[in-house]
Structure formats: structure tokens, C-alpha cells
Automatic annotation (TrEMBL):
<keyword id="KW-0456">Lyase</keyword>
<dbReference type="Pfam" id="PF00215">
    <property type="entry name" value="OMPdecase"/>
</dbReference>
<dbReference type="InterPro" id="IPR014732">
    <property type="entry name" value="OMPdecase"/>
</dbReference>
<comment type="subunit">
    <text>Homodimer.</text>
</comment>
<comment type="similarity">
    <text>Belongs to the OMP decarboxylase family. Type 1 subfamily.</text>
</comment>
<feature type="binding site">
    <location>
        <position position="120"/>
    </location>
    <ligand>
        <name>substrate</name>
    </ligand>
</feature>
<comment type="function">
    <text>Catalyzes the decarboxylation of orotidine 5'-monophosphate (OMP) to uridine 5'-monophosphate (UMP).</text>
</comment>
<feature type="binding site">
    <location>
        <position position="34"/>
    </location>
    <ligand>
        <name>substrate</name>
    </ligand>
</feature>
<comment type="pathway">
    <text>Pyrimidine metabolism; UMP biosynthesis via de novo pathway; UMP from orotate: step 2/2.</text>
</comment>
<dbReference type="InterPro" id="IPR013785">
    <property type="entry name" value="Aldolase_TIM"/>
</dbReference>
<feature type="binding site">
    <location>
        <position position="12"/>
    </location>
    <ligand>
        <name>substrate</name>
    </ligand>
</feature>
<feature type="binding site">
    <location>
        <position position="211"/>
    </location>
    <ligand>
        <name>substrate</name>
    </ligand>
</feature>
<dbReference type="GO" id="GO:0004590">
    <property type="term" value="F:orotidine-5'-phosphate decarboxylase activity"/>
</dbReference>
<keyword id="KW-0210">Decarboxylase</keyword>
<dbReference type="InterPro" id="IPR047596">
    <property type="entry name" value="OMPdecase_bac"/>
</dbReference>
<feature type="active site" description="Proton donor">
    <location>
        <position position="63"/>
    </location>
</feature>
<protein>
    <recommendedName>
        <fullName>Orotidine 5'-phosphate decarboxylase</fullName>
        <ecNumber>4.1.1.23</ecNumber>
    </recommendedName>
</protein>
Amino acid sequence: MEQTGRVIVALDFDSRRAAEELVERLGDECRFYKIGLELLTAAGPALVEKLVHDGKEVFLDLKLFEIPNSVAAAVRAAGRLGVSMVTVHGMGGTDIMAAAVQAAARDFPRLRVLALTVVTSMTGSDLADIGIGAAPEEQVLRLARLAQRAGCHGVIASPQEAAPLRRLLGPGGLVVTPGVTLPGESPGEHARPGTPQAALAAGASHVVVGRSVTRATDPVAAMRLVSAGPVHP
């Protein structure tokens, strides 16, 4: 896989104009973008369609957590937009994840369904607050096993879980890691961060980078630093 295809830039903006300005500035340096709830709510699906039309790949980070029929309908809607990846919440359990997978397989076989495990801002004490006694890595692996059995194409987890997830999922499973920052940068709200190079070396198939690129004085130079990680087949 080309290195540029393994770096996903998170368009965490509150307006379409700001997002499009960054995409234009990065040009051919980036071909994969993440759109989450903030930008989707602010700009609507038209931006997703435009990015796809312009030859970009889109990771639509919806974190779906609803009854199975609603999740399946949302996955089909994402598929009609032409996105490459969509997320479902692993905490929703097997039926919800399986409904997402089945909806994609039936109508949009190129759409990859990824299960969110434990968000990168969460610690063991956060899990304990909601009644989960497991440490973050243990909970990540538990949910990854559920996702694998449900047929998900991969999982979302922090860079710190990339290596055990690669061992669990084998060479074909997608391991997408948000929470990456360049060396020396503040991890911000990420409790389990890592550098893009370390995440890729540990077995991540993709890394998601946000402020390191989007808030950089020179986003192109920052993107090149992020992309300078190890290359895997």
C-alpha cells in the first residue's frame, strides 16, 4: 500500500470553507480524509460527495450506536455517498456490528466497516466510571474479537494497541489509529497517544492525524513529516 494512502487527515472543522481550504492546500500530498460528526453536521453530505468526486477517499466517522435496522440504514446512506470507510461502535455489541457489515456487503461491497473500540481519550478510570473493570488494552482486544466475529473489516484504537491488534487480527485486518502526533507535540486530549511512525511500525494499517497537520503553519511540510513512516506491503 502506498504510504500516502495510509495517512488520513481529520477534517475537524466547523465549516465547509475551512475544510476545503485545507484540502486545496494539501493537494496531492493527501488523498484520504476523515469527516466526523462536527463537519458533517456543519457542512452536510455535499462535501463528502465533492471529495469523492475529486478522487479523494473519505473515512466517515459516524460511530454508529443505534438499533440494528437504523445502523444498517445509516451504512447504506454512507455507501451511497461513495465513502471508503464508516465506523460503528463496538460497545453496541455483535448484532449492531453485524447489521452494519451485512448492509455494506449487500449493497456496497467496497465499503469497509470499522468498529470503534475504546476512544483515545479514555483511561482505565474512565472505563471504571461506566462499570467496565478492564484496562483499556484488555477492553480494546475484547471488542476487537467481537468485531472480528461480526465480520467487521477492522477496528479503531489508539497507537498503543496497534501491535496486539495486529497479532489478533492477522495481516488482513484494518487497524486504524487516531491519536497520533508528531514527536515533541502535545498529545492534547489523547490519553493513549503515539507517533505515526511508531503506530505504523507496530502494525497500524492507517493513522489518523489532526492538528499536527490541520493547525500547522505549513500543512504540506507537516504532512510530509507524518508520511515519512515505515512502509509495509
